[in-house]
Amino acid sequence: MKRIITLAALAAGTAAAAGVAQAQVAVSGSVGTTGASVEAQVRIAPGIHLRGGYNYFEYEADDTYDDIAYEGDLDLSTIGAFVDWHPFGNSFFVSGGAFIGEKGLALTATPTANVEIGSQTFTPAQVGTLNMGADLEENAPFIGLGWDTTFENPGLAFRFLAGAMFTGSPQVSLTSTGGSLSSDANFQAQLAQEEQTLQDEINDYEVYPVVQAGITYSF
Question: What pTM value is reported for the model?
Answer without folding.
Answer: 0.79
